[in-house]
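This protein record is not my work; I was only asked to verify it. Take the sequence as given and treat only the tokens as open to question. I have pasted the whole thing underneath without changing anything:
***
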Amino acid sequence: MKSRIRIQLSLESSNLSFSSLFACGGDKWTVEVGSNCVTLLSAEEYDIPGSEELERWSKFDREISDKIHKTVGHFRNAFYFSFGLSIQWGYDAYYGDTHEEDTLGMFPSIHQSGMNTEFSLQSSKVAKLIFNDVANTDASPVKAMLGYWRRGNELADLGFHSEAFLNYFKTLECLEELNKKNSIQQSLLDRFAPFISEGGRPKRIPAEIIKRHIGEGPSDPSVVRHIEKGAKILATANFPVSISDELFMFILDMIHARNHYNVGHKLLREAPFDRYIGIGQHSDEFEIVIPELANIENISKLLILNYLFPDKYTYNTRIRKWRLKNEQ
């Protein structure tokens, strides 16, 4: 008996209705998105053993179940990254006479009944292009980044701001670990932390614009380390040496927030900003970092997109919309 795999997921209600293609682990899928559900249908037909072939059936069933879980996971990450729509954690899958279901239910607070999102024609067009691009990448580092990004967004919606920040920041660290474009890294480092002769010996010193920006902040050596980290992230994400000072400062602020405020960890000392004694998920001290949280959501998304598709997408901060870079 031959059969395709069909997977159904419940979505937050919206005005979306379109078809697309999706790839995961070498398998191809057709995607049908409706107003409150999505159906994934495998392109391949699978030869399903008969129930009397118990050993062969058990092995096949485990393999198909694993394939379904991986496919649902990658789809959920890519779709949420592209559209920001909540997806129910449970699913229904069908192949041959088998119905497999995962009834984990809905993640509290994020997935609420009665929610509805209306996409403009332009925003849905760009979101579909982003989905087609990221959903069909098979690069393991990108899949990891999409997973961190989704968790960051969901945690932020639940109010767990410091944990959200850590997940967004992990996408930046994934780019840093890839450590690409070394010549651009070096040029960015030379631009923002040039060598200055001190006592007859060359020493990297943060550029004047950075010194003015951080004020009475951390010492020069720690700032230079942060600049080096930012240069690795931005170079790997295909940003040029001519990157704006403003964007570089955003990256530097995020790195500073992660390191200086020890985000996401309890401290055994009383901080001047924190009436609850220690940074927690809802701590007063994290109010200092919340502006960076708003920036890191969109900047981390831009970094991922620019790593995959250099100069294709950009974010308009004035109208808070994603658009194609070559569009006026």
Q: What stands out?
A: Residues 266-270, 273-279 have pLDDT under 50 and may be disordered. The chain has two domains: 2-121, 139-324. The CA atoms of residues 139 and 276 lie 42 Å apart.
